[in-house]
## 1
Amino acid sequence: MSIKIAWARLHCQRLAAGRLATPEKVVGWLGAVQAQEYHFTKWGLALRTRLASDASVERAFATGRILRTHVMRATWHFVTPADIRWLLALTAPRVRAAVAYYDRQLGITPAVTTRANRAIAAALAGGAQLTRTELKAVLSGAAVRVTGTQRLAHVIMHAELDAVICSGARRGKQFTYALLDDRAPATSLPAREDALAELARRYFTSHGPAQLKDFVWWSGLTTGEARAGLEMSRHHLTEEEIGGARYWLAPSRRTLGQPRRAAYLLPPYDEFLIAYKDRSASLDPALGRPGAGRGPYAAPVVLDGRVVGGWRRGLKGDRIAITFDLPRRLGSADARLVEEAASRYGDFLGADVVMR
């Protein structure tokens, strides 16, 4: 039964079929996309987008059609301008709670964040976009102590959580920050109950079949909040019992069968794995349990919905060298599917691929 869960997730996440027109539609469909591995996450969006290239996803980011900020769990996510404010209002309290211990160790108090937010907002007024190094100078000039990488990172993260800033366009290889008001003008926010229901509906529709504990993990909400959101969105969903566990998904996805055979070179932290507390449906027990971090299969090779190994990339002159870690030998048909997946990655980057 687990392989049927994996097949359905390939469909729901728009990997197997139904790819969307633009990167921002992908982000909106998924609700939020974990994005600390920026370059790899662009590839994750492209896998779900029709005719996307690295350049086209970069343009979507540069023009603010997708934004990058800290929301839900205490890490980077891509979100859309239409969703960023209500997502922050819903989940920022949980992120603050998650980092409170580190804030105490770093001496970051509400008075510090208030003073920092004012200084940052003034510096970015008029449409300015500044790098982290430039913001460090701004904060130092405002008597906000930002010695040490962690203290600076937390001060800036609080400005994101407080809806002061979000991502700007990249300047060369450097990331910048912009005022959230410039990238996503303020609008009225839904009631908290409506936001909970919308996030639950979005998650189970785009990530199903999934369990309540998966939604708790992905959203960073408490179990009570997640359950309340699920209950309020149940009329949009259907429930299935699989292997003694309860799963929810969109009714339209209930009868989907096996997708066309394909392999995928997924990025680290891709939603296909990271979005679930229970990832067993997509894992081969013989290969161990690839974690969310940089384990041997952190960038997984997925064949027919199951992880069959891992991959990593490197530069070989003007070409991309892809090295595979495949514990079992693939048959010729499976090997061709993996080679096709690697070629698609080369097309995305506009580079030739050398496979090992």
## 2
Amino acid sequence: MRALIVGGGGREHALAWKLLRDQPSLEIIAAPGNPGIAALGRCVPVSSDDIAGIVRLATSERPQLVVIGPEAPLAAGLADSFRAAGIAVFGPSRAAARIESSKAFAKALMREAGVPTARAIRCVDAASAKRAAREYGVPVVIKASGLAAGKGVIVCETMIDAERAIDSMLTDDSFGAAGREVLVEEFMEGEELSLFAITDGTTVLPMLPAQDHKRLLEGDRGPNTGGMGAYAPVSLGTGALVSDAVDRVFVPTLDALRAAGAPFSGLLYAGLMLTSQGPKVVEFNARFGDPETEAILPLLESSLLEPLLAVANGSGLAGRELKWSREFAVTTVVAADGYPDKPRKGTPIKLPPQQPNVLVFHAGTGAGANGELVTAGGRVFAVTAVAHTLERARSESARVASEIELEGKQLRRDIAWREQERSAGAPRN
């Protein structure tokens, strides 16, 4: 059996690793892949944004399953192209992927479907956005509506900060097309929770809740990033909370997308804020999130390949369930010098010897002129440790991440600090 994974980051490395564990005879092809994925399968130098090139590759290779990792090709309609070519693909259509590619669309859909979320005002000019910010008061959240690599959300503590963020997006074009439409959103107080669900459009298979760390610096300070680490499980993500989220968030959202003529199948990711009024949706993603995927998949004891195939080939998920380890996983991201604004590429890397119960997923690596391992992106590695206690997983993840030799590297050593304060590393019962 052959599977094609579209993408070349840490999420795709984790997907390849898990699918190969599920079926060791599986032939993995990745486009474009990375040096870590190359150790598991065959990488083909076709960009994930090259829709025609990816479809030609799949038409030639005829994989039994395609998994699309990044959001940009989903938004560009890659899954539609595969379906038109008769190739089984796990990933939503372009129309359904608007749940991520347009925050304005997602907000309007939630409002109509009665899905709990913060109030927001859509704006396309700076003057109206500033009026909306004054209406909500500070703190206030300014969001680029389009795809901004996880960096298009700015929490503003003062009105001056809000006006600067608005001008940056709508006047200075700092986020390009993604920021030419913005949402001015009321601030929600609480902790965030990432909840993934595999879905065929009707049946929902929720995955283990995780929590990521968006800020660059320890103590959740500094600029927003694509994610500096994640951990799972999260004690706040109880079975009751997950069931409630399925009933009040996932099902009505899927129903609304189907009613809008855009049925969703694939991985629907709800970023939830656990407020005093209950969980509310911060945003949706239309694919596996990064770096949460690198923390969640090592804890999945049942097959990932089987439900992905069931969704891709249309046989459905009825009667299926996922089984999870009772251990803890902590993922520490190692980022390049200059990340997130201007990450330095081409810096040599030396990895420590492989450690038991620690997985080093390549996220932004490439080959230098002499074949040596070098940086090729902002987030370079996602280092996941699995252990019986949270504290052990935290310490091992941070230790191995610290041992990676990379000039100017950036990493946080406080991943899962909130959970540590709650649980003190007690084994799960």
## 3
Amino acid sequence: MRVMTTLIRREFWEHRSLWLTPLAVAALLVLLAGVGTTSTHGVHIVVNGQEQMFLDSLTPDRRTKLFGVLIGAFLIPQLIVMLIGVSFYALDCLYTERRDRSILFWKSLPVSDAQTVTAKFLAAVLVVPLLVYVLSLVTSFLGYLLLTLRYTATPFAGFAQWDTLIWLRMQALLLADTLVAALWYAPLVALLLLASAWFRRNLYTWVLLLPIGVWFVERRMFGSDHVLRLLTYRSVGFFQALGVPLGGPMERRAGGVGVDEMYTRLDATGLLASPDLWLGVLAAVAFLYLTVRIRRQSDDS
């Protein structure tokens, strides 16, 4: 365990973007929550053909639910940026150690290839997501506090009512979602690690052109696009499970009825019952096994 902990810390030493990028995004969200102009547009809305104040249309129950949605909304941009950063890290980490020949030094240490690959995988799918979760916890609290101060003397004061039980429930829900996301994206991270260990040169070109080439051949020979659909599903399926509209209609979410729906659909733990998630975990294990075998035979060439 001490060796694995040291190897994971090594990843954060060598790849500072793993913790600097989430920290920068969290600081930006807090900054956006505390600055900007306060518009009174939308103070009056039309409900059942009658014009009324925005806050008058919100019941106390809906205000607490809106508070829960607001807390959860602070995690989504951090999660998206994290997925992009982790993807570049997984694609580059094993490739870079051959390019700068540091692989010769690391192979001279009493650390197995399986330990090294596992540490990189755990850093990408577990440690970084948990770091982002902790940052989102702090960000949501500070962001809500700043938003409350901004809207204190406006018609929107009290639009989202603080509720400690809701806050704790949302934090537990977001922690579960973070762990589910780690399982869901595990095969993609493992596949990128495999590509990082496999390709000897022009890594990004191969990673970009190979899926396109496979899709083109499949399209021309079989008239199907299963590869493209699989990659798309594995990339955005988690957000679809959260109820995030990706290219879908927004009309029914534009009004107040969307609050209840979004609040109940922020739970992604339903994916744990999906065979696709566990098949992906098995695929991740297979990809990691191949990555270890390839790295065992690698040198600085």
## 4
Amino acid sequence: MNKPSIIVIGSSNTDMVIQSAHLPEPGETVLGGVFFMNAGGKGANQAVAAARLGGNVSFIAKIGKDIFGKQAVRLFKNEGIDTSSIMKDRDLPSGIALITVDDKGENCIVVASGANAGLSARNLKKFKEKIESASILLMQLETPVDTVAYGVALGAAGNCRVVLNPAPACTLPDKLLRNVSIITPNEREAGMLTGIDVTDLNSAEHAAKLLQLKGVSTIIITMGAKGALLLHENKFSMIESPKVEAIDTTAAGDVFNGALVVALAEEKEMDEAVRFACKAAAISVTRLGAQASAPFRSELE
């Protein structure tokens, strides 16, 4: 395989999904419908989404020495992803996610991180030259924050474009953010990073400006069915999402990020790249599953 233009560092999980009429309240038991298992994990989802859309992708991750890990690697290879940087943890199992999806397509998720939590900065050091030579690095927050900080620092040192999807939501140190080229929070994540309750376009713009002050040059706040707010070169743009009937939003953000880095690797203009990502995410919510919902390039064209 040629040198990857896109490196994704992050989590790999097996998703165990139950469909139900509604999401359970605390203490409530809901009799659900269909159960199925699917490959997931934010890092893996984004790597698969990027590969399906034509990206030359290498995935750096850690799995357990179990059937879930073996199956994940086999699926990545089938998608054309370079798996030579996937490590096996001697002690921890592969990650697992328990997901409930209601009849409106909304979901709730609990993750047992397993080997994902064992992915360390020391592990990434083995791939220093590989990371620094990539054109784009994409990371998320289902691995330890210290590992993410080290990864984005390596990417910044190598002058590659560093994209951070700050999910699941948590606070991040400004030092980490200064090494990020593009950040892609949703409304809740933008609120967690800035302390602003992001509920509409005005509050989203306020949050984006604060993130810019923290050192991130380009901010993309995804806003669900409304689309995405882009702050790039000190200019705001609201990129609308195609209107679709959603049945499962589980990996919409991951598909968005995978599509975004593919468009950027192809040197599309930023607003065009965001529009491409919105289109891919819109297709994904019309399907069940995480990686299974990621569209192929032909479907966007």
